[in-house]
Amino acid sequence: MDPTHQGPEEYGQKADDSDGRRRPSRDANAADFGQPAPQQVRIVQLTVGDLLLTVNPVDGSEVEACPPGYEPDAPVRRTLSERAAHERAGAPPVPAGPPAPQLPLLERQEERERLVGLLARGRSVRLTGQAGSGRTALLDAVAADCTDLAPDGVVRLNGHRRTAAELLYALFDATHLAPLHRPGPEELLTLVRSIGAVVVIDDLEIGGAALDGLLEATPECAFLFGTAPGLAAPGADAHLEEVLLAGLGRSASLELLEKVVERPLTEDERNWAGDLWFESEGLPLRFVQAGSLLRQRDLLNTDPAAFDEYDYFEPRPDDAPPAPEPPTPETLDVPLPSLGEGAAPAVLLASRLSEAARETLRFTVALGGEVPHQAHLPALVGDTHADAALGELAGCGLLSPAGPRYRLAAGVLAQLEAGGYAESAAAHARTAAQHYAWWVSHPSVTPQRAVAEADAIVAAMGRLVPDGEAGQASAAVLLARSAAPALAAGMSWGAWEKALRAGQEAARIAGEVAEEAYFHHELGILALCSGNLDRARAELETSISMRGALADKSGAVAGRRALALVTDRSGRLVPPVRSQAGDDIPAVHQDFPGTPPGGSSPAPPLFVRQPAEEAPTVVAPYQATAPKPGGGRAVLGGARRNLAAAGAGALLIAVLGTVVTLGLTAGDTEEPGSRNVTIEQSSPEGSPEDGFPADEPDDGPAPDDGAPGNEAPATPGTSEAATPSTSGSPSPGPSSPDGSSPGTGEPSGTPSSSTSGAPTPTKTSPRPSQSTSPGPSATPTESEPEPTPTEAPTESPEPPTTSSSASGPAESASASATAEAPASGDPTETAA
After folding, report:
1. Which of 188, 608, 711, 818 has CB 3.0 to 4.6 Å from 183, enough for a Cys bridge?
2. Is 59 within the bounds of a domain?
């Protein structure tokens, strides 16, 4: 470490100078001994409709509204040469090794002419035949005859495991040039509607309504579909012609067999081929494979040294041991294959191939019939010459072309699995997954090359995910994590979705929460770009919650941005609550606890609807309001409200103490009603009954405003507990009919009134007020209290200070006592 500049310099990290510039390393070779520089992350920006998609392999893809200046150019039509180059790029590679013999198209001239005639009239045709009946060869011949029929030529597509939307995008890509742009659904329909081409789709797997939608979206195209029997037929309005493809006749089958063997057949071979024709119903694929069996038999019978250590095509050196004597007719012991071996020849054919070819078949079985590209075979098999195995397999009829790739021919996968080639499928699939994870992450691999291997990549993940063996799910997660960004950048979104779903399931099985959150995020981005907003919202919310639990800030931020865009584009905001007057009241939150989403609950709503004549409810901080005209009580707020409450409590304590004192003085201490407390009052903490002194201090003797005869004798022990009220003190009055003293009755919230019903006036002064006019005692009532308009707040410089309107019960009790004691003195003064 540099003593002058304290900072990490090891592992290629260099500290900053004080001026903010980077210092050069002291040793130019120091970085060679540290960790290698991180691999450059491949970030690709695509325009998807009116969105800008940034494929970020680290934190997850990001999507935003396309900003100004990023709008893509309008797609342009491909020229004739560009369409030809695009078609060559989508063709399967030519296998290494000697070229295979070109086989003629036998007994198909009638079907060929009929198909060309229907397409020339603009009719769409569905060619239905069993697997191995020669559909692909017939489609190739018809496509060659229809080159000049349509302005956009002939477009060859692969329908194996493709949806209608994927086929529409593939058709757009074959006829239009739009780099790094994927049109939206509406734009796509507008563009493909103007395409006029003969579209040949082999191995179609959609039917019914999906096929109707494909035909309706492209009214200017004539389709030629190659399908297997049992596929759902389109609707009656599709106007789709149906052509059935049967097997070959006996003579045509024997002629095809001779073309494959490249020699005339013997009598035994013709009899054997006749039995095979009856068993296979004349399928051309069976005779191509049977011809391969006869060719292998010829090699074994005529040249036993063909498979020695020097290889068949390599010349024997001079110092090599002499070759064995050629066999004689008497020594030939390789019989003809049995009828069962001729009907299912895959295992017998594979046993006579090279070890590299057999190992390639094991990888192919592990991948569900998908054959890796021949460039990957040397790394997978471990043989530098393993790329020649593809030529061996194709020459034997074990493979068939499928778009830009090869797959196992019909029925071969089941035969090899029965022959034991699937015993090590899990290990081979894991090896393929590790190889593809390394390969697809390499900077030299373009997204287009990754898309060409998409079927094999997805098949490897599909084999590993349901396997319960340890480490298989983690290998699938690594492959999906590496391949998903490349598939997205290559705009093969069908394979992208399959990889994401397989990776998400594998991450759940393996317990890799961070990777599972990434796959949920990518699925949400994919759904958002595809227009499925509900699905996007669910996936993104799941990803955000998982990344929040992991404290992944950058990933959570990316998810929230995408979720905000989903909310903005959905347009389904929370509907406002409509009042009775028709005004919209914005709701803060519509779904409350216990309320189903989007529904209603029998519980009372949080915000009550307002009457027609009142203004809507507004959620705002509480403010003190002025008293309403008409006698309404003023609402105090803030510190004044707290002060009023404290003063009302002190006043209530003083009133209760005075009432108890008057009751004891009247000699009615055992009266049950003298100490009752109603539910409108609370028991004071410092009442004399509890033995605790009152909190309020004694103010001392007060001047006598009343007659001497009205003074109440002091009761021992009560002079300090009974504190005078600042607004008046009750005094004993005339006895009630039941013999109880009115002064010892319960304080009531009902204000006192005179006999005539008029309110009793009170005297306002800084000192405790006294009643100036006598009046009869008011009987306590349980009716609702009515406000007294003549009451006014009484202010006193001595604590506690409060207004008569601060407390309802205390105010009523004080007013009642003032009205009932005409010339009463202060009990505290008498006690003093």
Report:
1. 188
2. no
Residue 601 lies in a domain: no
pLDDT of residue 340 exceeding 80, the answer is: yes
Among 216, 247, 278, where does a domain finish? 247
* Look-up of token digits 């003298």: 674
472: its two tokens: 């298989």
| CATH number of the CATH domain containing 124 | 3.40.50.300
Residues in the chain: 832
Nearest-5° angle of CA 622, CA 625, CA 628? 140
**Shared-domain flag, residues 28 and 123:** no
* DSSP secondary structure, 492-559, as one string: -HHHHHHHHHHHHHHHHHHT-HHHHHHHHHHHHHHHHHHT-HHHHHHHHHHHHHHHHHTT-HHHHHHH
Residues 820, 692 share a domain: yes
Give Cβ neighbours of residue 98 (< 8 Å, ≥ 6 apart): 391
Q: Which residues contact 572 (CB under 8 A, 6 or more apart)?
A: none
In degrees and rounded to multiples of 5, residue 128 shows phi and psi of: -110, 130
Query: Does residue 447 sit within a domain?
Result: no
Please check whether residue 610 is in contact with residue 616, taking contact to mean a CB–CB distance below 8 angstroms: yes
Q: Residue 770 and residue 764: Cα distance in Å, rounded?
A: 9
Residue given tokens 């898309």 in the structure block: 451
Residue-wise pLDDT tens digits, 686-715: 444 444 444 444 444 444 444 444 444 444
CB of 127 within 8 A of CB of 172?
A: no
Check whether 328 has a pLDDT greater than 60. no
- 531, 525, 528, 472: which is closest to 502 by C-alpha? 472
17 and 151 within one domain = no
Looking at the DSSP bridge assignments, the partners of residue 124 are 240
Residues 687 and 822 in one domain: yes
H/E stretch holding 408 reads strand 405-408
Backbone angles phi, psi at 299, to 5 degrees: -65, -40
* 252 three-class SS: helix
What secondary structure letter does DSSP report for 73?
Answer: P
pTM of the model: 0.64
Tell me how far apart the alpha carbons of residues 431 and 359 are, in angstroms, rounded to a whole number: 12
Q: Fill in the amino acid letter for 439.
A: W
Share of the chain above pLDDT 90, in %: 52
Query: Total structural domains in the chain?
Result: 3
> What mean pLDDT comes out for the span 335-347?
91
Greatest Cα pair distance in the chain = 160
Higher pLDDT pick, 557 / 738: 557
What local confidence, expressed as pLDDT, does residue 198 receive?
Answer: 96
Which residues, in sequence order, are CB contacts of 424 under 8 Å at separation 6+? Answer: 362, 366
Give the long-range contacts of residues 598-607, CB within 8 A, separation 24 or more.
605/577, 607/577
Provide the angle, in degrees to the nearest 10, between the axes of the packed helices 135-145 and 109-120. Answer: 50
- Domain assignment present for residue 169? The answer is yes
Q: What is the pLDDT of residues 81-124, one digit of tens each?
A: 999 999 998 899 888 878 877 889 999 999 999 999 999 999 99
Residue 666 — pLDDT band, cuts 50, 70, 90? low
The pLDDT value given to residue 302 = 72
Which tokens go with 544? Answer: 């955000």
Range of the domain at 23: 1-37
- Least confident residue range of 125-129, 131-135, 672-676: 672-676
Block residue for tokens 């290998």: 475
pLDDT digits (tens, 9 = 90+) for 386-400: 999 999 999 999 999
Question: What is the per-residue pLDDT across 174-206, written as a single tens digit (0 to 9) for each?
Answer: 999 999 999 999 999 999 999 999 999 999 999
Q: Are residues 28 and 163 in the same domain?
A: no
Q: Read off the tokens for 536.
A: 């996007």
Same domain, 124 and 17: no
One domain for residues 18 and 115: no
Q: What is the mean pLDDT of residues 248-264?
A: 94
To the nearest 10°, report the CA torsion of 597, 599, 605, 609. Answer: 120
700 and 829 assigned to the same domain: yes
Say yes or no to pLDDT of 80 above 50.
yes
